[in-house]
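Format notes (please read before filing issues)

Several people have asked whether sequences and structure tokens are stored in separate files. They are not. Every record keeps both together, in the order shown below: the sequence lines, then the token lines. Line labels are part of the format and must not be stripped during preprocessing.
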Amino acid sequence: VPQGGNTGLVGGSVPTFDEVVLSLANLNKIISFDESTGVLHCQAGCVLESLYQHVEERGFTMPIDLGAKGSCHIGGNVSTNAGGLRYLRYGPLSGSVLGLEVVKADGTRVDMTSLLRKDNTGYKAHQLFIGAE
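Then the structure lines:
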């Protein structure tokens, strides 16, 4: 069971039987931020508030703002397709995610990252993981 900031209200990160809890708190690195495109590449354990500060210092804003921004992780936000206070202006978080790198339950790593805002080469496979909890 992957576990982020534990701000969800449905108990999705709480083990019920003999599952292994995997904390993503140490996956908290900002890998890159391209100021010409506004594309942020980060790890799932990044706290939303730290991402907000990082992009704000460069004149940008995050498309999501939550009351729990000081403890929620971006991985959890993506996993629940969180809306937040800026939903009406920027839409759901799924519209702002260009790609994902996912590790499946069997350990297989699937890289679905892209820097293209528009890609008509097929299905957007990363969208299957957004909001899947």
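For reference, the curators noted about this record: The domain at 2-128 is CATH 3.30.465.10 (Uridine Diphospho-n-acetylenolpyruvylglucosamine Reductase; domain 3). The mean pLDDT is 86.
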